[in-house]
Amino acid sequence: MNEVIELLMERKSIRAYEEREIPQEIRERILESAIRAPTAGNMVLYSILEVEDQGIKDRLVETCDNQPMIARAPLVLIFLADFRKWMDYFEVCDVRVINEMKGIEGYKPGAGDFMLCVSDALIAAQNAVVAAESMGVGSCYIGDIMENYEIHRELFDLPDYTFPVGLLCFGYPTESQLRRPLTTRFPRESVVFKDRYRRLDRKEFHRMYSEMDERVFKGKYLEGCNNIGQHYYKRKVTSDFMAEMNRSVATAIKLWCGEPQY
Amino acid sequence: MNEVIELLMERKSIRAYEEREIPQEIRERILESAIRAPTAGNMVLYSILEVEDQGIKDRLVETCDNQPMIARAPLVLIFLADFRKWMDYFEVCDVRVINEMKGIEGYKPGAGDFMLCVSDALIAAQNAVVAAESMGVGSCYIGDIMENYEIHRELFDLPDYTFPVGLLCFGYPTESQLRRPLTTRFPRESVVFKDRYRRLDRKEFHRMYSEMDERVFKGKYLEGCNNIGQHYYKRKVTSDFMAEMNRSVATAIKLWCGEPQY
Question: In its keyword annotation, does this UniProt entry include Oxidoreductase (chains A, B) (predicted)?
């Protein structure tokens, strides 16, 4: 196993940080590694917000489902799906000649553009995670940045055709975070399928969740729950934050794609 | 610069492969590294299809905008956003008791679930890319897997609440691919903003695209185009494949989220 694989296999999310700044040089390496990530058609369909303003960090704690670590992270990056930049550039480049050539009225970004931008943003984010890890800087994704779209639009001056798809907190791990064991993952046969998708049966599900059950839950589920499925269903899937995320993302997609043409 | 950063900074997409299998052990390391990637709430909201059937690879060449390298890649992985597995598991776990407890009728996945699944899938995909690279295996993303949703559903037996968001081709790079210089990237100041989003002005756009113009285009744009904006607008944005991707993704999101509730 080489050093890179070792890093990928041992990386865990870090949610508590030492009170210690991340030197500018290391911040820059993280950002440069993100920017070198593969990007669709080399179009770089994303932007990164480097959040330094403590007031904004404090506000994010509230808008991202009350996660105080955001306020304490020495480096906070928001990865934006961004087609606005190209739309503005097309204006600068006067693409009306192409519209005339093709006999079209203009271009309105759609769900495909949205997803290409989202892909670029997340691929770059994971490069930032790996780069940070290699320099001893821990990280944690906050998907809750997809909630409260309207508030984040205002907070970050986000124009149409931008969408904050991921937030990453970075910092040096505390001792106790370093000692925390790796979380379990599902066995490969429940994640990887040959050639075609295959729905799992009851027995396979039992195997899939057994290690998590033994190592993490040990029979202790949320009140009123008797298994992992009920636990997650109660705690996450039917939670208020999930309802908010569903609403927020649907609103953002609608604004991006216009009235659904389908 | 450590070895990991060096790898991230020097990685480029590889589109032509030596005729040489990837040993099973290396395939497994790639998959394991993907599966260790961070995942929302440790829910592993994705699946990976390992495509080995040559007939399916050949078909993908056509359905992914005619890219013959898919047929020639010794390893093809499709990353699926997947909430189906959890929905099936909830059924096995009999979550009706939670519905009664919460006074709800049941749960219908929404746009938030879709995006969490998409995020998990892409983050895992990038881990696979980095892992492969560290073992001398090149890779290339094919976003076109998001086109032709209906065809891919049938081809891969995809049930509701799954969506193929990324395809990765892997293989040992040919000599000429190894010699190919790194593509340019936009300068950091046009990708990273402090605290708030900022739209770029004409002068900034000029700086942003100048290296790409000098090194890549050298004044040679698509017929009828006079600058990079017009070139990309004609070649990519207003292309048939982009129209198809917009249609396909919109269809998939509609099926996943139901009639928009917004």
Answer: yes
Distance from CA of A89 to the nearest CA of B (A): 6
Over 80: is that where the pLDDT of B170 sits? yes
The answer to whether residue A201 sits within a structural domain is no
**What is the percent of chain B with per-residue pLDDT over 70, rounded to a whole number?**
98
Q: Considering the domain boundaries, does residue B168 fall inside one?
A: yes
pLDDT band at B262; cut points 50, 70, 90: very low
* Residue contact A49–B197, C-beta within 8 A: yes
| Contact A237/B at CB under 8 A | yes
B203 touches chain A (CB under 8 A): no
ipTM of the complex: 0.97
Q: Against a cut of 0.90, is the pTM above it?
A: yes
Containing domain of residue A82, as a range?
A: 3-181
Q: According to the model, what pLDDT value does residue B22 have?
A: 98
Q: How many domains does chain A have?
A: 1
**Helical spans, DSSP H, in chain B:** 3-10, 24-35, 54-63, 69-72, 84-92, 96-102, 111-134, 149-155, 175-179, 202-212, 228-232, 240-257
DSSP B47: E
**Is A32 close to B11, i.e. CB distance below 8 A?**
no
In chain B, which residues have their Cβ closer than 8 Å to the Cβ of A58? none
Distance from CA of B134 to the nearest CA of A (A): 6
Selecting from B94, B146, B191 the residue whose C-beta is nearest the C-beta of A48 gives B191
B56 part of a folded domain: yes
Any domain includes B237: no
Residue B261, pLDDT > 50, answer no
Nearest Cα to B109, choosing from A235, A238, A191? A238
Q: Closest approach of chain A CAs to the CA of B90, in angstroms? A: 5
| Dihedral over Cα of B190, B192, B193, B199: its sign | positive
